[in-house]
Amino acid sequence: MNQPRDPYSFQVPDQPQDQFKSLTLILYVLYIVAIFSAGILAVIALIINYVKLDAVQGSLYASHFKWQIRTFWWYLIWNVIAWIPFIFLFFTTDHPSAFVGVALGGMVFCIGLMTVSWIWIVYRAIRGMLALSENKPMYSMQ
């Protein structure tokens, strides 16, 4: 005798590997575009990385997810370091005009380091996309 089917229960099919590849590629693109969104898209990509990390364990996509996660955290560290002199100079002095030279130096440091971090995140994403297109992991599997 057939049991009546519960309309509120469902079974989630296993995600095919192609969907993980597409997701990984989308996350790389989000990291690149994050430069133009004040990092908001990078935070979204990071959250997706952490949420889906268990699902990709044991596949080559796990190495890409770890690569992306490390890329985000280093990108964040570089940008925090870049903003420290800027924040210090503009919020801790009574007479900003007295420190014009120092402020200019801090601004050059901030912009320079942020530019380097933008180049670095684009490099890491492109390198990851190239490895992904060849179905290679980001780290050697020993």
Can you describe this structure?
The protein is mostly helical and 142 residues long. The chain has one domain. The protein is built from 4 helices and no strands. The chain has helices at residues 17-33, 40-56, 60-91, 100-133. α1 (17-33) runs antiparallel to α2. The longest helix is centred in the C-terminal third of the chain and has 34 residues, at 100-133. The radius of gyration is 22 Å and the shape is elongated. Residues 6-13 have low confidence and may be disordered. The chain crosses the membrane at residues 25-51, 72-92, 98-123. Keywords: Membrane, Transmembrane, Transmembrane helix.
Features:
Putative membrane protein; membrane; single chain; 142 residues; 0% strand; transmembrane; mainly alpha
Give the helix/strand layout.
Layout: H1 17-33, H2 40-56, H3 60-91, H4 100-133
Helix pairs in contact: 1-2, 1-3, 1-4, 2-3, 3-4
Q: How far is it from the N-terminal to the C-terminal residue, by CA?
A: 53 Å
Helix coverage percent: over 70%
- The tally of beta strands, per DSSP, is 0
Radius of gyration: 22 Å
Instruction: Let me know the average pLDDT.
Output: 83
**Structural class of the secondary elements?**
mainly alpha
Shape: elongated
How many helices? The count is 4
Content of β-strand: under 5%
Tell me the domain tally.
1
Order of helices and strands: HHHH
Low-confidence stretches: 6-13
Transmembrane segments: 25-51, 72-92, 98-123
Protein name: Putative membrane protein
Keywords: Membrane, Transmembrane, Transmembrane helix
